[in-house]
Amino acid sequence: VNVSDLVTFSVTPYQLESFLYAPGAYQGWDPTTAEALSSATSNGVYVGYINFTTPNSEFKLTTARNWDNSYGTTGVNTLVYNGGDNLVAPNTGYHKITADTNALTYTLEAYSWGIIGSASPGGWDADTDMVWNSTAQVWEIANIALTAGEMKFRLNNGWDTNFGDNGNNGSLEPGGDNIPIAEAGNYKITFDEVNLVWTKTKL
User: Fold this and answer.
1) How far is CA 54 from CA 51, 92, 99, 108, 176, in A?
2) Residues 141 and 151: beta-carbon distance below 8 Å
3) Apex CA 81: angle with CA 100 and CA 138, to 5°?
4) 3-class DSSP string for the chain
5) Using one digit for the tens of pLDDT, what is the confidence trace for 86-110?
6) Average pLDDT over residues 114-136
7) Residues 104, 80: contact at Cβ < 8 Å?
8) Predicted local distance difference test score (pLDDT) of residue 16
9) Distance between CA atoms of residues 43 and 61, nearest Å
10) What per-residue confidence (pLDDT) applies to 107?
11) Of 27, 32, 102, 138, which is most buried, counting CB atoms within 10 Å of its CB?
12) Alpha-carbon span 161 to 174, nearest angstrom
């Protein structure tokens, strides 16, 4: 019988997720407070959400919260490392930014989540927009007055992509059942589109 010697070793865990940052005109060109784009597996593809408050808003992508290294563009959705012009968001409102640092490309698309329903301020006629929380990685409404009724989550003010909660248990299903709100009051609402869960907290 062969017996090996006992070997002791230590392992240092590393965070797999990595980030880019998007300083720009929308927040005063300050990398330290810029919105983050994340790559859950550090595979070179980063996704983030930015609310642009003016049309033709310019920005860049940095590899850290400083100006040491950045990505610009030569146009037509290309990325250039440490060169190129500023990226431009032509329209206002929330946009989803996907940056591929392998292919050196990016996309920019209008993207906003909201709640709608008889319990919400706009009823079934108008969405109440949510705000992206890049720290918690969820969409949220910090304080909203709801009435007794129902609600759903939907993308870009349309019904093509919407979520409900079939069991009213905090998990979400595409096109699922309306979510009942039993008691009127002020609530904090969160929506996690990656893990398909939602929360409501009475304030």
Assistant:
1) 9, 5, 21, 15, 35
2) no
3) 40
4) CCCCCCCCCCCCCCCCCEEEEECEHHHCCCHHHCEEEEECCCCCEEEEEEEECCCCEEECEECCCCCCCEEEECCCCECEECCCECEEECCCEEEEEEEECCCCEEEEEECCEEEECCCCCCCCCCCEECEEECCCCEEEEEEEEECCEEEEEEECCCCCCEEECCCCCCECEECCCCEEECCCEEEEEEEECCCCEEEEEEC
5) 999 999 999 999 999 999 999 999 9
6) 95
7) yes
8) 82
9) 17
10) 97
11) 138
12) 7
Question: 3-27 b/e with 16+ CB inside 10 Å = b?
Answer: eeeeeeeeeeeeeeebbbbbbbbbb
Which two three-digit tokens encode residue 107? 């996309």
pLDDT above 60 (res 11): no
Predicted confidence band of residue 75 (pLDDT cuts 50, 70, 90): confident
Residue 164 and residue 154 in contact, taking contact as beta carbons nearer than 8 Å:
no
Place of tokens 């550090």: 42
User: What amino acid occupies position 18?
Assistant: S
The C-alpha atoms of residue 193 and residue 136 are separated, in whole angstroms, by: 12
Of 6-10, 142-146, 185-189, least confident by mean pLDDT is 6-10
